[in-house]
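Name: GNAT family N-acetyltransferase
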Amino acid sequence: MKVVETDRLLLRWMEKTDAPFILELLNDPSWLKFLGDREIRTIEQSEGYISSILAMYEKLGFGLYLVELKEDKIPIGICGLLKRESLEYADIGFAYTTQFHRKGYGFEAALATLDYAKNVLRLKKVVAITSEKNHNSAKLLEKIGMAYSRRVLLPHDKEELKLFSINF
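Structure predicted for GNAT family N-acetyltransferase:
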């Protein structure tokens, strides 16, 4: 199901058939460096990861969306909204395979996701978390209008994360 369309991108609900790409993404060097190893090594495990996203769609009406190039339907990453028990508000998350970094896709998808959160989902506030070392994500969050709030330590994490937020 299509969620958001931009000039160059289509954000849509994930499907089980996206498992090969999700397997690639979750084992991309930048994912492993900044988001951690989810120990997803097989298509079946990737399908399980997608099942958790599908359950979020069912429960909340939103989740992480597959981002693909509109023109040729090539998947390049994920961007969307999560609702973690440890955070009061929904948070925006995104990740792209390394070959699609630094092309403006992350900005384009994140800005469209915030617009969707505000105008379709009618959320009043969205937050984001990022590793202290992930300077590019922090810059992108600021570029889409989010402001650094404070550091947070989420349950089961060893490292404090930077928390950003935006009010609508």
